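ugh ok fine here u go
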Amino acid sequence: MTTDNTIAGIAGVVCDGGTLNIGNGDQVLKSNVAFASPTPFAFPADLTLESGAHLGRVGGAFAQELSHFDTNFTVSVAGNLTIPSGATAGASGCCAFTATDNAQLAAHGGQSLWASIGGYGTNAFDSVLNPSMPGGSRYRGFRAGGVFRLTVGGELALNGTISSDGSGARGNADTTDNQAAPAGGTLNLSLGSLSGTGSITAQGGCGKYNYAGGAGGGRVAVRLTGSGSTFSDYWKTNITAYGVSFSGNNDKASSAGTVYLQDASDGEAAGMVLIRNDLALEAGAVNNKAVTLYPGKGVGCDAPDAFKKTDLAVAGAAKVQLTDALKIAGLTIDSDSLIDLNGKTLTVKSAKVNGVKLAPGKYTPAKLPAYIVDSASGGELVVTGGGFSLKVR
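structure:
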C-alpha cells in the first residue's frame, strides 16, 4: 500500500485490522484516494494531498462501505500539510447519528427549521470552544457532518476545502424523503499557521418536498499555535458554520452555528466567537424563527463563565438568543444582525454596533431597536468601559 512514501489506491482502500506502515518521511496522498482511520493517526513529517484526494471521513456510497468506522477522525501531521484546489478533508455527510433527544434533531450549533414548527431541533448542543460532537439528523438516511480533529505542527496551506457539512448543504438538496436535512458537524483544528484561499465549513444541509427546510450550522474551532500566527482577513470570512435560508421563507430557515478563532497570542479561551450567516443568501434572516442559542442549553455546552475573556461578533444576518447571563470581553453587532437578550444581562467591557463604539452605560431595546430585542423582559446590555479590548479580525 506504500510505494516511495506515496499512499496510493483506486477509489479508496479498506483495511480491516493489521498495521499500515507509512514510513518516517514526507507523505503524498494520491488522487482518488480517501484515507481515514478508526483510531487517531499520526503522520510523522509533511503530508501533501494531490487534487482529488480526501483526508478524513467520506459521505455517500463510500460512507456505507466504511460503516464499520465511526464518524470521528483524529489526525495529526508533525510537519506541514498541503491541501490544493480539488483536494478535500473532513467529515461531511458521513454521520447517520439520529438524536434520541427531539430537541437535537437536525440541530447542532444552530437550530433547525423544526424549531419553528413543532419543538424539534430547538437546542444548541456541544461546546463552542472545544467541540466534539457530530450534527443531529432527523432520520438515519439523512447524513449529518461528523467530527474531524486535525493538528498540524507547521503550516496548513489550504486551497481546497475542509468541511463537516450536512448532506445537501447550501441548497443542493440531495435528500430523498419528506424531512428536514442533517446539521453541520464539528471541525476542531489546531494549526501552527494557516495560509491559502480555500474554505473551512460546517454548514447545515437542506431537505426538500413538503417539509423542506434547513438544518442548523455546526461548530468550528480553529487555534493557531505558531509564534506570532494570526488569521488573515481572508480566513476571518471563509471559516463558516452557516445555517440555511429558503428565499425569504422564515419558517423553513435554520440558524448559524458557531466559529471560534484563537490567534497564537490570545491565550486559551480568549479568542473570538463568530456567529454569522451568509448575508448574500440570508437577507431578512433576522426575522427567522430559528435562532442561534448562545452559549447553548443542550448536552456538552460550555459554562457561561468560560466566555469571560472571549469576544463575540454577530454578523451576516445572524440572529442570536442568549440562554444565560454572560460577561464577555468585547462585542460587535453588524447592521444586518441582532441579539435577543431573552431577559438576560449581557455585560461587556466594550462594544461596537454598526461600526460605532458604544459609550459605557446600560442599553435596552428601546435605545438600540435595530440591534437588540428582548423576547422575555428585564434584559439589558451593559457596557462597563475600561478600554476597547475587541481585536480587529
